[in-house]
Write a structure and sequence with these properties.
By secondary structure, the protein is of the alpha/beta class. It is 33% helix and 22% strand.
Length: 245
């Protein structure tokens, strides 16, 4: 049985202030928690799950404190509208202070505020083998429960940094910087790249003027219909599918 104090503590991790204070975050659902346990079981501090999930996943829990709970208890600690079998408390991942852009592809996100978009972009980066994302400080929190949920485990494999994007980009001498824009070089005609920084902007405002001025090349997805713009995560997937080697 979960005591009230523990329930309240887990609930507080839904808030950024307490996540940062504790250095922890919440992950929920069978697929996501399994992915995190397989990727880095040592970072999964505690698991709270209903009996059938516990019975099916005992082999994954040898490095983790695990407690069987009831469906009612699950509802009390879940951040989801429809709780799904298991909640995990996970140690936030170390990123280090130095962000190296040479010899790899880096995504730079300027004020991406929708948690679902950020989580999906992290997942897309993982699909294409991209190991790091650099976000402006006003972007969504990588450990927001909706972000974590949307990554489907990729949060354990992709490093996400937060820094002054304009300042950081200004220091990247010798590395090509590409900015996703409504106008620019058609991505379908571009040569594949193995190194570079690709900037994606805010869902409604795009990339800020100060940031886009630092790009060496503006790139675009050729439009065939009448839609005004593309979802940021969708645009990320399309662009990476064309220019990543």
């Amino acid at each position: 049985m979960l005591v009230k104090q523990k329930v309240k503590y887990i609930q507080t991790l839904g808030q950024k202030k307490f996540r940062e204070q504790e250095g922890l975050f919440i992950a929920e659902g069978p697929k996501l928690v399994k992915e995190l346990l397989e990727a880095d079981a040592a970072s999964v501090r505690e698991v709270y799950a209903v009996k059938d999930w516990m019975d099916d996943n005992q082999k994954l829990l040898n490095k983790t404190v695990a407690k069987e709970i009831t469906e009612i208890e699950l509802e009390k600690i879940s951040q989801l509208t429809t709780p799904n079998k298991v909640v995990a408390i996970v140690q936030q991942y170390e990123t280090g202070e130095t962000i190296i852009a040479e010899d790899q592809i880096t995504l730079a996100l300027d004020n991406i505020q929708d948690p679902g978009n950020l989580g999906t972009i992290i997942r897309i980066a993982d699909w294409f083998g991209i190991k790091q994302i650099v976000c402006s400080p006003d972007s969504a929190d990588r450990y927001n429960p909706k972000v974590v949920q949307s990554t489907m485990g990729s949060i354990a494999r992709v490093k996400v940094y937060y820094t002054d994007l304009e300042e950081w980009l200004g220091l990247q001498k010798g590395v090509s910087i590409y900015a996703a824009s409504l106008y620019g070089e058609d991505v379908t005609t571009m040569k594949k790249i193995k190194e570079g920084i690709i900037i994606f902007g805010n869902e409604s405002k795009g990339i800020s003027g100060e940031i886009i001025n630092l790009a060496t090349t503006k790139i675009t997805i050729s439009k065939k219909g009448n839609a005004e713009s593309l979802n940021a995560a969708v645009a990320t997937g399309i662009i990476l599918s064309h220019i990543i080697t």
